[in-house]
Amino acid sequence: MFLEVHQCLRQPALPPSPCAGSTPSIPPAGTEPALSARRRARLRPAEDLKFEPYWWRERDRSPPPEPDLPERVDVAIVGGGYTGLSAALTLARAGASVVVFDAEDPGDGASSRNGGMFGDRLKPGYGGLARRFGEARAVAMLDEASASVDFIERLVIDNEIACDFARMGRFYPAVTRAHYESMAASLEAEKAARPVQAEMVPADEQSQFIGSRFYAGGRLHHDTGGLHPAKFHDGLLAAARGAGALIAGRTAVLGLEETDSAMVLETSLGFITAETVLICTNGYTGPLTPEHQARVVPVTSAIVATDELDPDLVRRLIPGGRMIADSFNLLNYYRPSPDGRRILLGSRPGVGVGGGRKLADHLGRRLGEIFPELDGVSLTHCWWGKVAFSFDGLPKIGLEGRIGHAMCYAGSGVAMSNWMGHKLAQKALGDLAGRSAFDDVEFPERFFYGGRPWFLGPAMAWYGFRDSLSRLRHGR
Ligand SMILES: Cc1cc2nc3c(=O)[nH]c(=O)nc-3n(C[C@H](O)[C@H](O)[C@H](O)COP(=O)(O)OP(=O)(O)OC[C@H]3O[C@@H](n4cnc5c(N)ncnc54)[C@H](O)[C@@H]3O)c2cc1C
């Protein structure tokens, strides 16, 4: 039974459908526009552009019921995204009393706004990890990243979460030949150390994976995939609630104090005492825990969704419906919507881009650069949220005394946040299974940083400049 569901999940399903209204004419297959046309191509924000996630279209936005807070719980969790809910589910299923607080509606952080692309990569890559930690620990860390993908699949299956989960794979196209060579070298090194379900795809074969000649080949990962992030969050929330966790949405935790025997939390609903507090605030970490705020760098990531397209066009541009993330410093990540009728593209907005319609316009140009066929298509949704980075690019987890934390997934948190939340819960339960290869890794701080990332502007400008050089050198 499990195998059948598993096989089925691996098949991307983009349904055939009649042509939708605002679709531009489709050029014949293989027609490649001139470079100037590629540079001019852009998608434009619709008149009624919506500044909220495409994923929220069917979401119930009515205020949640105000919960009756007990005086005391075993574990209080701050943050109702994937990390907090995954922790709550594990704790509640083990019989602990749990309350999850979120200052907004749970999920309003990154967990219902993301691209829905779950992966098994770690920011430093195998080479960087092996240099820093040695080969065995690097392998253990990457094995955990792979385990996080299996874990999220189990969450979906065991809790019957209808969220368009599929392991259709991810293609990482290289912007330049040099990026391609570097990807190939790092894959070869990693394959020598551990099995990796991935292969290099040279430029003359990439049309099986992407309907664009913008790239110089790429790296294909088979085991990863995509889901509908808000539906997944809703399902996880229902599972945690069903297991007995109390969910207090629109309830900020304002203060934390440790007494001899417990933690006292001041919330916007009143005071509550907990044996243990888990901080699961990721990119929204604030002054409640200055020790985390001073170590977490929040970075804005933004996404646009196109108007409905002809599903045949979407299939031709992104054959196999895979997730895609390219090798720009300010990377483009994009995918078809689960119904195969739209393309969603996200990126880290660079310096001087602006917000609102200007941001949508900027992302529309990026999409037009990759797929000139989409010139003139409208963008219907544009939204953004915060991703958390640590200074060494690694996820962070720890439980010291009565306070635990799990955060900093560097834009790869769809799978990792669930895994880390689960591990953190096991730690809080005193379960040795909560051990992680990421235990006891330093959570670095910098003397020049206290939680306000003033340096992001210059850093983004530098990355944007290097990306422009890549474009120029390679005739893009
Ligand atoms: C636009 C965008 C696109 C992304 N795309 C991808 C992707 O395709 N693939 C991928 O792997 N990752 C992606 N990510 C990252 C991924 O979404 C996150 O890593 C993941 O959702 C983190 O989950 P979390 O539960 O740790 O944090 P969040 O979901 O951000 O939740 C943290 C919560 O803490 C709450 N909070 C903070 N302080 C308090 C307080 N004092 N009291 C109460 N509540 C508080 C906030 O309200 C917030 O809801 C993306 C992120 C963004 C923003």
UniProtKB/TrEMBL annotation:
Region (Disordered): 11-42
Organism of derivation: Minwuia thermotolerans
Keywords in alphabetical order: Oxidoreductase
FAD dependent oxidoreductase domain segment(s): 74-426
InterPro entries: FAD-dep_OxRdtase, FAD/NAD-bd_sf
Pfam families: DAO
Recorded GO MF terms: oxidoreductase activity
Record protein name field: FAD dependent oxidoreductase domain-containing protein
Domain of life per record: Bacteria
Alphabetical list of SUPFAM superfamilies matching this protein: FAD/NAD(P)-binding domain (SSF51905)
Gene Ontology CC terms: cytoplasm
Classification lineage: Bacteria, Pseudomonadati, Pseudomonadota, Alphaproteobacteria, Minwuiales
